[in-house]
C-alpha cells in the first residue's frame, strides 16, 4: 500500500519572511521604501525592519498593504503565519539535532562506534544510529546504556588477556551485538541435553571433510536446537567464542579470529561444552573465550572437553610418545597418516602437535583454511 505524503510533515531548510516577498513586490513596481512607509503612515525604520525580516507583519499592517498594493490582507497574514510555523519547526529541529549530538558523544564513550560503522550497522544519520544502538543494547536511553556498562564491569564480565590488548568497551559492544544478532534468529527445534555425543560425532565428520564448513555447522547445530553465528571481531577483542542462553535456545558465537580449521573446531567444541555442561544448569551465565585470559574452572573444563572430543586422549598420548623425537619434516607425514587412520582433519592434528610440543614455528604444507 502506498504511503500518503503530507507536505505539512516536512521541515523546510529555511523560513521565508513575508518582508522578502514585500521587498520583491516593491522592486517589481518600482516603488521606493520611503514612499510606501509614507503611504502606510509608519516610520521608514519600521518598514525597513519588516523588509529585513526583523519585524512581523501585523493584521493592521496587512490591511494597509491591501489598500495600497491591492493585495489581500489574508495573503500577507498567511505568509507571516507560515513563516512563524517554519521558524518554529526549524528551531525545534536544531534543538533536536543538538540533543542528539550530545547523546552521541556519550554513546561514543561507551560503545565501539567505529567497529559498528565498519560493519555498516550504523550509518551517517545520528538519530537513526542512536535508535540502532538502543536496540542492540536493549536500552531506551543513554543513561541506561551507561548503567548497563557499569553493571557489566561490576560483575567482572570483562576478562582480560595476559597476552593481547583488550578494550572493555569493545568487548562490551561485541557481546551485545552478539545478543542482538541472536535475537533475530529463529530456532524452532527444542534443545536436548542428551544429544551431546551424537552432535560431537557429526561435527567431527564435518571437520574431517572441511567443505562448506560454516554453513553446515549452522545447519547441524540448528538441528540440535542451538543457534550459531559467526561475527567479525572488533578492535582489541581477542575473542574466539561466546556462548549464552537467549529465549528458548542456547547460542554459540565464533569470530574466526585466526581463520583456521583447527582453531575453529576447538573453539566450537569448547563452547559446546559450556552449553551442555554449564548453561543448561544456569541460563543466566555467559561464557566468553578470550585468548590469553586466565582460566577458571569452567574454562579449563571446556578446554579439556574440546581436546578430547576432537582426538581421543589415549590415542593421542600414544602417538606423541611414539613420534615425539622425530624431525618436524618427517612428523608431517606421520600426522597425515594418523589423521587418515582416525578420520580427523590433518590440520587439527597438526594444531594439537604444535601446541603440545610448543613448536608453533614449524612450517607445514598442510592447509589450515576453513573451506
User: From the structure provided, what is the oligomeric state, counting identical versus distinct chains?
Assistant: single chain
Average pLDDT metric: 90
- Alpha-carbon distance between the two ends: 44 Å
Low-confidence segments, ≥5 residues, pLDDT <50? 1-8
Helical content band: 55-70%
Question: Mind summarizing the main beta sheet?
Answer: 4 strands, mixed
Cross-sheet strand order for the largest sheet:
1-3-2-4
Q: Give the CA-based shape.
A: rod-shaped
Strand content: 5-15%
| Number of extended strands | 4
- Helix tally? 16
Element string (H = helix, E = strand): HHHHHHHHHHHEEEHEHHHH
Radius of gyration: 34 Å
Counting helices, strands and paired strands, the structural category is alpha+beta
Give an overview of the whole structure.
Strands 1-3-2-4 form a four-stranded mixed sheet, sandwiched between helices. A hairpin with a 2-residue loop joins strand 2 and strand 3 (249-254). Helices cover 59% and strands 6% of the residues. The two termini are 44 Å apart. Helix 10 (196-209) runs antiparallel to helix 12, helix 12 crosses helix 13 (297-310) and helix 12 packs across helix 16 (346-357). The chain is α+β, with helices and mostly antiparallel strands.
Keywords:
alpha+beta; four-stranded mixed sheet; 371 residues; 16 helices; 59% helix
Offer a quick outline of the entry.
The chain is built from 16 helices and four strands. The protein has 371 residues and is of the alpha+beta class.
What's the SSE blueprint?
Blueprint: H1 18-29, H2 33-40, H3 44-51, H4 59-69, H5 73-110, H6 113-118, H7 126-137, H8 142-154, H9 168-183, H10 196-209, H11 213-223, E1 227-230, E2 239-246, E3 249-254, H12 261-279, E4 286-290, H13 297-310, H14 313-323, H15 328-342, H16 346-357
Amino acid at each position: 500500500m502506498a504511503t500518503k505524503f503530507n507536505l505539512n510533515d516536512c521541515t523546510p531548510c529555511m523560513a521565508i519572511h513575508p518582508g522578502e516577498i514585500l521587498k520583491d513586490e516593491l522592486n517589481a513596481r518600482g516603488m521606493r521604501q520611503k514612499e510606501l512607509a509614507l503611504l502606510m503612515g509608519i516610520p521608514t525604520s519600521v518598514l525597513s525592519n519588516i523588509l529585513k525580516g526583523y519585524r512581523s507583519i501585523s493584521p493592521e499592517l496587512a490591511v494597509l498593504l491591501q489598500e495600497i498594493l491591492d493585495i489581500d490582507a489574508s495573503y500577507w497574514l498567511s505568509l507571516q503565519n507560515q513563516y512563524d510555523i517554519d521558524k518554529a519547526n526549524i528551531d525545534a529541529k536544531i534543538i533536536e539535532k543538538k540533543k542528539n549530538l550530545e547523546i552521541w558523544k556519550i554513546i561514543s564513550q561507551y560503545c565501539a562506534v567505529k567497529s559498528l560503522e565498519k560493519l555498516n550497522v550504523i550509518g551517517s544519520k545520528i538519530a537513526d544510529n542512536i535508535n540502532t544502538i538502543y536496540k542492540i543494547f536493549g536500552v531506551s536511553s543513554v543513561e541506561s546504556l551507561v548503567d548497563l556498562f557499569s553493571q557489566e564491569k561490576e560483575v567482572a564480565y570483562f576478562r582480560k588477556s595476559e597476552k593481547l590488548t583488550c578494550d572493555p568497551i569493545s568487548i562490551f559492544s561485541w557481546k551485545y551485538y552478539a545478543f542482538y544478532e541472536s535475537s533475530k534468529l529463529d530456532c524452532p527445534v527444542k534443545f536436548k541435553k542428551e544429544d551431546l555425543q551424537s552432535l560431537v560425532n557429526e561435527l567431527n565428520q564435518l571437520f574431517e571433510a572441511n567443505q562448506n564448513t560454516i554453513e553446515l555447522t549452522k545447519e547441524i547445530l540448528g538441528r540440535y536446537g542451538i543457534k550459531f553465528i559467526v561475527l567479525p571481531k572488533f578492535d582489541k577483542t581477542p575473542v574466539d567464542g561466546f556462548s549464552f542462553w537467549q529465549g528458548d535456545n542456547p547460542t554459540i558465537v565464533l569470530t574466526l579470529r585466526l581463520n583456521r580449521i583447527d582453531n575453529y573446531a576447538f573453539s566450537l567444541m569448547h563452547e559446546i561444552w559450556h552449553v551442555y555442561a554449564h548453561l543448561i544448569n544456569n541460563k543466566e551465565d555467559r561464557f566468553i573465550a578470550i585468548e590469553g585470559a586466565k582460566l577458571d574452572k569452567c574454562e579449563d573444563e571446556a578446554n579439556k572437553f574440546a581436546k578430547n572430543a576432537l582426538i581421543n586422549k589415549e590415542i593421542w598420548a600414544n602417538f606423541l610418545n611414539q613420534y615425539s623425537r622425530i624431525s618436524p619434516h618427517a612428523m608431517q607425514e606421520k600426522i597425515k597418516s594418523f589423521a587418515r587412520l582416525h578420520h580427523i582433519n590433518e590440520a587439527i592434528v597438526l594444531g594439537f602437535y604444535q601446541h603440545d610440543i610448543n613448536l608453533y614455528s614449524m612450517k607445514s604444507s598442510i592447509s589450515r583454511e576453513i573451506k
